[in-house]
Design goal:
Elements: E1 20-23, E2 28-31, E3 37-42, H1 53-71, E4 75-82, H2 87-96, H3 100-117, E5 125-128, H4 129-145, E6 149-152, E7 155-158, H5 174-183, E8 200-204, E9 220-222, H6 224-235, E10 240-246, H7 250-265, E11 271-277, E12 280-282, E13 285-286, H8 297-302, H9 307-315, E14 323-324, H10 327-344, H11 353-364, H12 369-386, H13 393-405
Helix pairs in contact: 4-6, 6-7, 9-10, 10-12, 11-12, 11-13
This protein binds 5'-O-(N-(L-cysteinyl)-sulfamoyl)adenosine (5CA) and zinc ion (ZN).
Residues 43-46, 54-55, 57-58, 81, 83, 228, 245-246, 248-249, 277, 279-280, 286-288 line the site of 5'-O-(N-(L-cysteinyl)-sulfamoyl)adenosine (5CA).
């Protein structure tokens, strides 16, 4: 699948800094020190509805990861999937009386437009679940042949007890896992499973639903977690730097994925850091496609909102906090954008080298974007109040804000 065009990332004076980031598995900050190539997998959308601000906030966090690494002159191998076949997609297509594949294609196209408008750097590999099926089938066969998967009325389940490290990502106890499994796509109450938490690897073809050749598994479609594992292992291999997504993916999705990969390869861990973004709410509840309390990026764009203001609204919140979208959040971002634009359009200003270092320090410390915005605010305030004599400064600031924060002034 093709991704979207990359906006240019200006090179900055001085030295980038290594990223220190919160890892869900250890509950602590880890300093990542990738080699010349940093590797990151970020879970993509399930394309049955348009990109909302919760999605955008999560992709914004991982865009910052990529920008911090690029600033250290590393290459970034960024992989993202599109869950272009899954139950929610089929249910929405059925509800609306449309073709599921056409729905997925349309919503994925809109996501690309939103990401481009928000200046999110594209992944190097953007892979759909459907196109990954030929790579998924042999992995499920291998798990089954190794005794880590079993048949249940034609469906194939992964046995979580086959992984001695199961639980290492989320650190949850069995009762909490069971509750979340039921809420987030699992089927803990299905009779005949070895462990209620065991997730589906391959679902045999159902009447009236699309299915694909599954070799010795028979026709069917893949489970959700093995989709991301197959894509990640194919394009990144084991031991990559960051596995990313929103906090609702820590369990079961990232826990199960890590277990699949660890049993398949005999290596641990799958990723050096599991990084999770907080949830964005609207009217007091998590923004979610299933609840319908959504603000869409595309709707704001249609209303004439500058995408740079949307991006600043996202950046004003620390990626790990849960926060609420309100009109005021957007108005504050618009005012800030205007202030910054006025400051960089002057011919000179206060020296900016210190500011570039402040932005770097803030982002490299667990992606503290709000601290980076405060630093730019202070520079722009000084520019407004005292002017300045450094005629290179406005250019340096606008390049730094573009390169490190993805905001074009
Ligand atoms: N296709 C799967 C991942 S393989 C999926 O979870 N798709 S999704 O469309 O439901 O979500 C895409 C990303 O947006 C996930 O990382 C999810 O955690 C994140 N996300 C969803 N809702 C919110 C929200 N309200 N706030 C922040 N992030 C969210
Ligand atoms: Zn995923």
């Amino acid at each position: 699948m093709h991704a979207w065009p990359a906006s240019e990332v200006p090179a900055l004076p001085g030295q980038g800094r290594d990223l220190e980031i919160h890892d869900t598995a250890t509950g602590a900050l880890v300093t990542l020190a990738p080699g010349p190539v940093a590797r990151i997998y970020v879970c993509g959308i399930t394309p049955y509805d348009a990109t909302h601000l919760g999605h955008a906030a999560t992709y914004n966090a991982f865009d910052l990861v990529q920008r911090v690494w690029l600033d250290t002159k590393r290459q970034v191998h960024y992989v993202q999937n599109v869950t272009d076949i899954d139950d929610p997609l089929l249910e929405r297509a059925e509800r609306d009386g449309v073709d599921w594949a056409g729905l997925a294609e349309r919503e994925t196209a809109l996501f690309r437009e939103d990401m481009t408008a928000l200046r999110m750097l594209p992944p190097r590999h953007y892979i759909g679940a459907v196109e990954a099926i030929p790579g998924i089938v042999p992995l499920v066969e291998r798990l089954r042949d190794a005794g880590a998967a079993y048949d249940l009325d034609g469906d194939v389940y992964f046995s979580v007890d086959s992984d001695p490290h199961f639980g290492a990502v989320s650190g949850l106890d069995a009762a909490a896992m069971r509750l979340l499994s039921a809420e987030r796509g699992g089927d803990p109450d299905r009779p005949g499973k070895k462990n209620p938490l065991d997730p589906l690897l391959w679902m045999s073809a159902r009447e009236g639903e699309p299915s694909w050749d599954g070799g010795s598994l028979g026709p069917g479609r893949p489970g959700w977690h093995i989709e991301c594992v197959a894509i990640a292992l194919d394009h990144l291999g084991m031991g990559f730097d960051v596995q990313g997504g929103g906090s609702d993916l820590a369990f079961p999705h990232h826990e199960m994925g890590a277990s699949h990969a660890q049993v398949l390869t005999g290596q641990f861990p799958m990723a050096k850091a599991y990084v999770h973004a907080g949830m964005v709410a609207l009217h007091g509840e998590k923004m979610s496609k299933s609840k319908g309390n959504l603000v869409f990026v595309s709707q704001l764009r249609r209303d004439g909102v500058d995408p740079a203001a949307i991006r600043l609204a996202l950046l004003a919140h620390h990626y790990r906090s849960d926060w609420e979208w309100t009109d005021q959040v957007l108005r504050d971002a618009e005012r800030r954008l205007e202030h910054w634009r006025a400051a960089v359009s002057r011919p000179d200003g206060p020296p900016a080298e210190g500011l570039v270092e402040e932005i770097r320090a803030a982002l490299s410390h667990d992606l503290d974007a709000p601290a980076a915005l405060d630093a730019v605010d202070r520079w722009a305030d000084r520019q407004r109040e005292d002017g300045g004599t450094d005629d290179g400064a406005p250019g340096v600031v606008s390049r730094a804000v573009d390169a490190l924060l993805g905001v074009a002034l």
